[in-house]
Amino acid sequence: MNSLRRRLILLLVASIVGVVGLATAAVISVRGGAPPPELTMPWVAQQVEIVMRLRPSQIPDVFPVELSDHPAGGTVDRAETAMLNDILHRRGLDVSAVVSEKAEEPGQLASVRLPDNRWAIMKVPHVKPPGREWLVLAGWISLIVAGATAVSVYFTSVLIRPLEMLEAAVSKIGSDGVLATVPEVGSAEVKATAHALNQLSSRLKTAMESRMRLVAAAGHDLRTPMTRMRLRAEFLDDDREKWLHDLDELDRIADSAIRLVREEVDQDAVEPVELDRLVHDIEAEMISLGHAVSVGHLDKVSVRAGALGLRRALRNLIVNAATHGKGCGISLSAADNRATLTIADRGPGIPPEQLGKAFEPFFRVDPGRRQSIPGAGLGLAIAKEIIERHGGTITLENRPGGGLAQRVVFDAVS
């Protein structure tokens, strides 16, 4: 968003400054320098005519005329000299005039030979640029840039307000996938965006609730027919154990589905949890159940989470590593206000193309979904739901030496 804001501001500022700069350059090119000779030479000719009709002592002070024994020095401008002489001749004055450039400063001088062989030297009108012209131009451009920036910032804020609202709404999506309610105030576009977001949030909430009710109802409703089937299987002589095994698997799937829904609905209170002590407690529990679990270095660190939910999530991850990974090692490090829990096993890992699917419900690495280890395939999905709800992240990666590494990262509590 900030990048888009900066781009729009730069675009508007560059456009405004560019247009004003082009207009300024056009004005300077049209009006820059001295006035054209078509305007100045008639005025000089009129001044020469007045001087010629008066005696030198009668020349008024308003005419800056200098009398000299020779014409003004400098390079002679032949075109303007010819123009001035032509105008003088048309006025009936039989005199000789010379227009020359000043030697030490911009401008021109007109020299007219008087009857007494002296020369009357007078200035040709010249519009000088203002003093410190570069400073004036820099101030002019600075004012344009300041004004253009202020205008651009304001209109850019108005333009991207709906996008900011969308970004804020998406960033506030809860663990249930529902958007927070957005106030429907402001301009017509902002109101339309807020209304569309609120409608989307309502539909998402309805869909999520419908899904949870469906899963919970299916899990509960499966219990009754499974109980009847289990009773009937007791009276079978052939394949009795296979029937009971399949029913146990169905029972685990139904129970896991109900637990997944409960994790999305029932959320325990958030509080500081000593992560290192929790890992030690889970290790003792796993060892008592016969799992090959070992604990390495554990930094003392606390995180904010629901104690029961976090325990359930880490237990699922450790059980997954201990059963599918033929044992696992656990380490905990704290650095830069982050707590990183690593669960590394010694199993075959997960094919790289399937790592992104590992958190999907009922995921199994075996495409044939053969079940050599009991489980419904919801352990990682439940763990991910709990960890992300409390602001943590979980990633999976194959270890170079073999096995899978599960990394859980939380913000540490100081």
From TrEMBL:
Presence of the UniProt keyword Phosphoprotein in the record: yes
Reactions performed catalytically: ATP + protein L-histidine = ADP + protein N-phospho-L-histidine
One cellular-component annotation, GO: plasma membrane
Main location: membrane
Residue ranges constituting the HAMP domain according to the UniProt record: 157-209
Residues that span the membrane, as ranges: 134-155
Localization (cell): Cell inner membrane
Membrane topology: Multi-pass membrane protein
InterPro entries for the chain: 2C_sensor_his_kinase (IPR050980), HAMP_dom (IPR003660), HATPase_C_sf (IPR036890), HATPase_dom (IPR003594), His_kinase_dom (IPR005467), HisK_dim/P_dom (IPR003661), HisK_dim/P_sf (IPR036097), Sig_transdc_His_kin-like_C (IPR004358)
Leading EC class: transferase
Any GO molecular function: phosphorelay sensor kinase activity
Pfam family, one: HisKA
Keyword Plastid listed: no
EC number: 2.7.13.3
Protein name: histidine kinase
Species: Mesorhizobium sanjuanii
